[in-house]
Design a protein that fits this description.
By secondary structure, the protein is mainly α. The protein has six helices and two strands, in the order H-H-H-H-H-E-E-H. Strands 1-2 form a two-stranded antiparallel ribbon. A hairpin with a 7-residue loop joins strand 1 and strand 2.
């Protein structure tokens, strides 16, 4: 339903239309996401030995999480949780189309670390080739987020 229709219906019912305000700190999340991604990308390109695939995976995942959180926070919204599934669902619900075509690939990142259940957690380490794909995905997320926050 178009936003103007939602506003009209809300006003007809006697309630003012709800408008979300940006959540403080969204710009810090954006900065941190960009820093995590820069660190991961530089370490990957230079093939620094200290940066294992497990460490690179975590840097990329943190970068994506921070970038998506920045976008959600700027729009005044928050996800129910911080798994990739939850972040994608929040974007799809609150900002449809912002990450169009990336959802399934983003959600697949959860498969490397299923750590929500203490008794049945699992961690698998990606290959360096998979890290390259993750970085490509993260750079696309970054591009879309930067465009979106600049448009707001």
């Amino acid at each position: 339903m178009p936003e103007s229709c939602k506003d009209a219906i809300a006003n007809l019912a006697g309630f003012p239309a709800l408008h979300s305000e940006p959540i403080n700190g969204w710009d810090e999340f954006l900065r941190e996401g960009n820093q995590f991604l820069s660190t991961a990308n530089n370490a990957y390109v230079r093939r620094k030995e200290a940066f294992t695939t497990a460490i690179l995976y975590n840097l990329v995942a943190m970068a994506i999480e921070k970038l998506i959180m920045a976008l959600l926070m700027k729009s005044g919204k928050l996800p129910y949780n911080h798994t990739m599934h939850d972040l994608v669902e929040a974007i799809d619900e609150f900002l449809p189309g912002e990450l169009a075509g990336l959802g399934e690939e983003l959600k697949s990142l959860d498969g490397f670390q299923d750590i929500c259940e203490i008794e049945s957690y699992s961690i698998s380490h990606p290959t360096m080739e998979q890290i390259g794909g993750m970085l490509t995905l993260a750079l696309e997320v970054q591009s879309r987020v930067m465009t979106s926050v600049a448009d707001c």
